[in-house]
Amino acid sequence: MCGRYAASRRPDDLVVEFEAEDATDHDVLPADYNVAPTKEVHAVLVRYGVRQLRVLTWGLVPSWAPDGKDAAKRINARIETVAQRPAFRSALRWRRCLIPADGWYEWAVAADRPGRQPYFITPVDGSLLAFAGLYERRAGLLTCTIVTTTATGALASVHDRMPVVVDRARWASWLDPELVDPPALVAMPPAHLLAGLELRPVGAEVGNVANNGPALTAFHAADPAPQTLF
Fold first, then answer.
1. Does the structure show a pLDDT above 90 at 225?
2. HEC string of the chain?
3. What gap in Å lies between CA 202 and CA 2, rounded to an integer?
4. 106 labelled catalytic
5. Identified catalytic residue from 2, 136, 144, 198
6. Tens digit of each residue's pLDDT (9 = 90 or more) over 10-22
7. How far is CA 65 from each of CA 69, 134, 147, rounded to the nearest angstrom?
8. Is 97 a catalytic residue?
């Protein structure tokens, strides 16, 4: 799954990166190194044929839902079943988005002590990731979910799921509502993209959603050296 991630890019930079117009209505989100469910996040989507940068709430609320109380249960959508799930299938067909991120966190059982060791999975070169997402609009509120797939390589030893990372060459295809079979586009990220990811041990402070700041993503010197995933 993807239950926590980091997103530090400024809206101005995201607009350039995704070649989108700024439709955030001046709702400027600060850099967030500990994005948690139900927080507001940046997402890129297509509305009326125009690619836009928007502010959405993480945790999808279907248009037919009586309220948003279960939104935190829909922060992820499994790619294997997303086309069949009532909460996601309409959004998969018509309302796909990209969710910018620096990287995401996962926790694994520590080999040398009690408890779990958090890891930050991020591009070695510091480049931007784009997660495959879906969005919904209900009562004027835009919400989103992150699509996940089976983890591969060294990441599978940390968690059995990972967010679907969309390669830049497939951004336009994922966002295009005219394509009716999008899962085939992103079922597995290209090998070159996965090869550029680093599995970085970080400090336990990230486990508390009240903590924030770039130090959360820094290599934790007391732990083993970071490793690339492939």
1. no
2. CCCCEEECCCHHHHHHHHCCEECCCCCCCCCEEEECCCCEEEEEEEECCEEEEEEEEECCCCCCCCCCCCHHHHCEEECCCCCCCCCCHHHHHHCEEEEEECEEEEEEECCCCCCEEEEEEEECCCCCEEEEEEEEEECCEEEEEEEEEECCHHHHHCCCEEECECCHHHHHHHHCCCCCCCHHHHCCCCHHHHHCEEEEECCHHHHCCCCCCHHHHCCCCCCCCCEECC
3. 16
4. yes
5. 2
6. 999 999 999 999 9
7. 9, 16, 20
8. no
Cα gap 16→19, rounded to integer Å:
5
Catalytic residue among 17, 40, 80, 106: 106
Position 136 pLDDT exceeds 80: yes
Task: Judge whether 106 and 118 are in contact, CB under 8 Å.
Answer: yes
Do residues 37 and 56 make contact, with C-beta atoms less than 8 angstroms apart?
Answer: no
Separation CA 103–CA 199 (nearest Å): 10
Q: Which fold has domain 5-228?
A: hypothetical protein yedk fold (3.90.1680)
**pLDDT tens digits, 38-96:** 999 999 999 999 999 999 999 999 999 988 889 999 999 999 999 999 999 999 999 99
